[in-house]
Amino acid sequence: MSLSQQTREQARAIISRYPQARSALLPMLHLVQSEEGYVSADGISLCAEELSLTTAEVAAVATFYTMYHRKPAGEYHIGVCINPGCGILGGDAIWDKLSNRLGIGHDEVTADGKISLERIECQAACTHAPVMTANWEFLDNMTPESAIEVVEKLASGQEVISTRGPRIRTFKENELTLAGFDDGLVDEGGQADAEMLAGLNRAKELGQSAPGVKK
Amino acid sequence: MTVTTQTVTVTVDGVVVEVPAGTLIIRVAEMLGTAIPRFCDHPLLAPVAACRMCLVEIEGQGKPQPSCAVTVADGMVIKTQHTSEMAEKAQAGVMEFLLINHPLDCPICDKGGECPLQNQAMTNGQGETRFQGTKRTFPKPINVSAQVLLDRERCVSCARCTRFADEIAGDPFIELLERGAKQQVGTSEDQPFDSYFSGNTIQICPVGALTSAKYRFRSRPFDLVSTPTACEHCASGCALRTDVRRSTVMRRLAWDAPEVNEEWNCDKGRFAFPYTSEARLTHPLVRDEDGNLVPTSWPEALRIAAAGLAETGAASGVLTGGRVTVEDAQAYSSFAREVLGTQDVDFRARVVSNEETAFLANHVAGKPLDVTYGDLETAKSVLLVSFEPEDESPIIFLRLRKAALKGSTKVYSVGPYTSAGLAKMKGTLLVAGPRQEVSVINNAAEYLTSDSIILVGERAAQTPGALHAASELAQKTGAKLAWVPRRAGDRGALDAGLLPIGGRNTSEIMAAAGGAVKGLLIGGVSPEDVDGDLIAAVESAKFVVSLETRHTEVTANADVVFPVAVITEKSGTFRNWEGRDRSFSAVVTTPGALSDADVLGELAREVNKTISVTDFWASASKPAVVAGPVDASEVGSGQAVLSTWRHLLDKGALQSGEPYLAATARVAVVRVSPATAQKLDLIDGGTATVSCCGESASAPLIVTAGMADDVVWIPANSEGCSLNLPSGCVVSVSRGEI
Amino acid sequence: MTLTPVLTAHWDETDSYKISGYMRHGGYTAFKKAFATGPDGIISIVKDSGLRGRGGAGFPTGLKWSFVPQGDGKPHYLVVNADESEPGACKDIPLMLANPHALIEGIIIAAYAMRANHAFIYLRGEVPHVFRRVNNAIREAYAAGYLGKNIMGSGFDLEVVLHAGAGAYICGEETALLDSLEGRRGQPRLKPPFPAVAGLYASPSCVNNVETIANIPYIVNNGVDWFKSFGTEKSPGFKLFAVSGHVNRPGIYEAPLGITMRELLEHAGGVRNGHKVKFWLPGGSSVPMLTPDLLDTPLTYEDIAAAGSMLGTGTPMIFDETTSVVRAVTGWISFYKHESCGKCTPCREGTWWLSDVLHRFEDGHGTESDLDKLIDICEQIAGRSFCALGDAAATPFPAALKHFRDEFVQATISPASETFDPVAATVFAGATR
């Protein structure tokens, strides 16, 4: 299946952002995933054609980065951080529980195509450990129980809200966001949560502040 | 111009040495005879410092440094593994890492016995492994092309192959895929590594990861006898090494010739050698009473041939073909003029013109090394006329690409469209169909200075006026002029005088056969190459002697056939396009194998004459270069002007018997401009048929932006698409297959 | 030492991430001062401030800017390293979620100083909501006339492009980041040439961390003396300390450099109740672990180095006595193996081998001689690999062995999961008990 004309035009729009066309390749591969849910051979060809590269040059890049899928990701791509900061604090237990419950392992998809699982590395949210992601939106401070609940809701089409972000949309929709196409969701989720405000709240509690910084 | 090189003084293992500033440490060590182990380093590739095998200690630096990437600074004190424990330990550590996942399959690996990893594991490694786990494995081997096979578990990720493909050949069809411990060389699913230069990656692979389908599991390096040779395919003049096992050529490698092919060659030169042992003629043949060709003795055949040729004498034509050595060419020249007494002699087995004859006599013959590879690299600009280097002289292509990437040389090409090769040379197209070439050449002065070079290909003979225009352009701008023929023997033949000064050219000889030309002496000439009917000429002539290596249509119709030696059986010299002599030795001994020169010498002896070596051009008259008559035939509706040349890999006789090589050939396509496609009602991607004079060829159509209008391009002599017509012909073009 | 919210001072206001929230507290005034000061003056200010790069290496920022050659006629590029992926580091991501305009204004000033008319923010791909917030900030800044052509009539043009990565820790290494930004595999480049001379598109470039750049408007607005009133002489200024692990109140704590780990830990509510610190890492998994006896070490570049570790990203992770060191180290080494780019032999093969052996320890199948071998492997990686990722990978094990040799010896007999109940180490252990 070849990609749509709209995707090709969006690819050209990405290219126009950069002084040199090849810089557009990473966002373009996100774009390709927004249509197909993975980087297909056609997706590689599209990038190669638009950037005057060989398909091998594109494949070399596509296979280097872990966010590019070789086969279709689930509608909801679930990441469980197993880096020690999260893994020890509960990420490993969450992984075991989820993987067992869904009957799929790392980089695998449920038979209905709804959920795929990935053992992810540090998500830069260690203060919120254990951390999961759904289509890369934060799901902070998880437990095995909350993990199961979230995934079952997603699988059955119920709404799940990111702990620091919007309602979880599909994998493809979020890939379009990462390709740089605005989705109007910037105001979703709070500006900061308890962990992000821990220091500020503590300072206020103690009456501490930085000299010269007006409250 | 004087070049002042700044030097610096450095110490390597206690030895003080003065070297040019900017030299890499590893090269300085080489100058001193110190071998620092290395894998990713290659003198013709940009440093990457990836393998870390060449780590050395530099005094004052806390950690070992990659000697392949650090240039010397004045006063630098360098300690290699011979004097530094830090360096020795670092190298041993890297070697241990390289071996933990390397299979222990040396006994069955093609590289075993000539393997840098094996050798350096012995010199710079440890005797035993401390690795106890399970080695990384991959399914093996995989084809990166029909010819090149990859065993990924042997790969050490030095990236020499991928860097060669990208930096040197400009064909990045192989790349490093995946990352970390899973990193591996590979291609994309839809595009194999079909580069004309792919075989070089096998040669520079420092392990046995890349092997050729042709040679894989065929031999052990220590069973081979190696001989330095020269390539017989094109006029580039590559130095080769031919490896023989029990009188059979097993493989050929590019050999070191910094002034010519550096360390590279093309796949045709590397793999196209099975023809040398295929269906060879073994005995002289003569006609019996019934007219059948039958084997006979050498004395008998020589007697009959000499008698026949003595009879036709000055009414003989001599067609030598372009595969002759300098020595053979001199013998033909002497035999034609002094033994037969004819001026009807021509080496050109292709379209010829008297304009070209005059051009070659005035501007090329007897002028060795007027323009060299080195000059191409330093020229400000190079103008290509009727010449597609990647297809027609691949080493010129590599050198021009190198020069263009350095930014020192700008390449311009007079041609119908921007070829892949031109794009890889970052070249600029001066767009011209065959009929516009002369005016474009006439107006090309703005691209040239006295620091420029004009390279004219042999196809210029197909365009009346082109050679005249090129010589005028050189005169006007002060640019140097060089001519690049397509065959290895062409330049030597020209210099030996195998050109019809005051005689008939190839086409004229054939046309006159049976009339004014009664006898024919024919070397390696194929009927499909020449402009005229060679077989009809052979049939018409009263007496025909053929010197050949294999049965051909010519031998089938000749009166006497002499088997002659192929390149592997004789020593000799090819003179490349520069006029540089490339000598080679026999690599196999075939009893009774005689070169063309040997046979001609014997024939001369039969009539009590001898072959002499004379400088033909010292006394030859040189006709003025006059533009030939322009073809002004009308281009009717449904028609276009043909533009064509041969791909490097085609149906050429010397490529037979090598299916893996043939499988990497470029697929034939038909090209027209968008406007012409519209005019001729052709569809991009559909099949188009080009036809003329009862011949036709069909191939997929590529509508090519920026191409000359009213021109159709197809490859000549290509598998499945062969139209043996010269550029400039008016042809019909239609949709679909006929 | 007191907490000093500067970058975080207004994160409790609901529009903190919008231009309105940023401008309510003096946002977008610093760049106008910068335009009045002139590029060289700004570089001097940043040099004088002593600001050190907040990405981990701590290189003086003003000095780095001054390496970009001026008047060379080539385009210059500012590239912001927003690829925060170091295990334990989680400061830039919150900063960009809650206060992206500080970054944007910092970019304007930094680009102006180094005469760059093009800036890129290389954001790791796995954070779409951060992407939204930063892209929105860029849009708002364009709309306000703070980005684009002839900003505020100054004659200075600046285009800012947000670029999403795609999952590769190595792209935090600045030359790998540049290759990635050019649409290539994120493998580090040979130096020289350094990015300041030939960086993005072979043009002079400067790569700076998010937090570093976000500091700039505050320094320009409040002055060098104000900035130096925080921290120490060698480590001036304030820092976003992200405290994570077995603490009661993990989160972002903004304090002067020089605050001790013990003080920070107290702000963070201490180690979770009933437990005590077993080991801690001052700033990411790439720095050697330290033991509780060093909790009073001031968190400065120089003091942490003297204590045998590195400040790194300044994002301390605290682990209590329920933690298996063998398991933690094995996890981190697996991470480096996963993230090794593959370019150089020591890192590619060394991390693979380390991981192979350490997993045997985690499973209880190590041998004592393996311990020497592991040390040897680390020594064969450190200082021999192409970039700092290899050095980082060679860091966790030697430090762990030094402090907790007994645990590794125990792992020659029994699996880590038997010696240390994994459930006890989880944050929900209490809830399930």
Structure overview:
The complex is a heterotrimer of chains A (215), B (738) and C (433). Chain A is α+β, with helices and mostly antiparallel strands and 215 residues long. Chain A contains 8 helices and 5 strands; from the N terminus they run H-H-H-H-E-H-E-E-E-E-H-H-H. Chain A has helices at 5-15, 25-36, 41-51, 55-62, 84-102, 144-155, 171-178, 194-206, and strands spanning 76-81, 108-109, 115-120, 132-134, 137-139. Chain A has a 5-stranded mixed β-sheet. In chain A, a hairpin with a 2-residue loop joins strand 4 and strand 5. In chain A, helix 1 packs antiparallel against helix 2 (25-36) and helix 2 (25-36) packs antiparallel against helix 3 (41-51). The longest helix of chain A has 19 residues, at 84-102. Chain A is globular. By secondary structure, chain B is α/β, with parallel strands linked by helices. Chain B has 23 helices and 33 strands. In chain B, helix 8 packs parallel to helix 20 and helix 17 (506-512) packs across helix 18 (534-540). The termini of chain B are far apart. Chain C has 433 residues and is an alpha/beta fold. Chain C has helices at 19-24, 30-37, 39-49, 61-66, 92-98, 100-113, 128-143, 174-181, 195-198, 210-222, 224-228, 261-267, 301-306, 325-339, 345-362, 368-381, 388-393, 396-410, 416-419, 429-432; strands at 77-82, 118-123, 159-164, 205-209, 238-245, 251-256, 277-281, 317-320. In chain C, strands 3-2-1-4 form a 4-stranded parallel β-sheet, with helices on both faces. Chain C is globular, with a radius of gyration of 22 Å. The chains are: A alpha+beta (215), B alpha/beta (738), C alpha/beta (433). At the A-C interface, helix 2, helix 5, helix 7 and helix 8 of A face helix 5, helix 7, strand 3, strand 5 and strand 6 of C.
The assembly state of the depicted protein chains is: heterotrimer
Biggest interface reads: A-C, 87 and 101 residues
| Low-pLDDT residue spans of chain B | none
Q: What is the CA-CA span between the terminal residues of chain B?
A: 62 Å
Q: Note the total helix count of chain C.
A: 20
What is the helical fraction of chain C, as a range of percent?
A: 40-55%
* Overall mean confidence score, pLDDT of chain C: 97
- Main sheet overview of chain C: 4 strands, parallel
Based on CA atoms alone, the radius of gyration of chain C comes out at 22 Å
Give the count of helical stretches of chain B: 23
Low-confidence stretches of chain C: none
* N-C termini distance of chain C: 37 Å
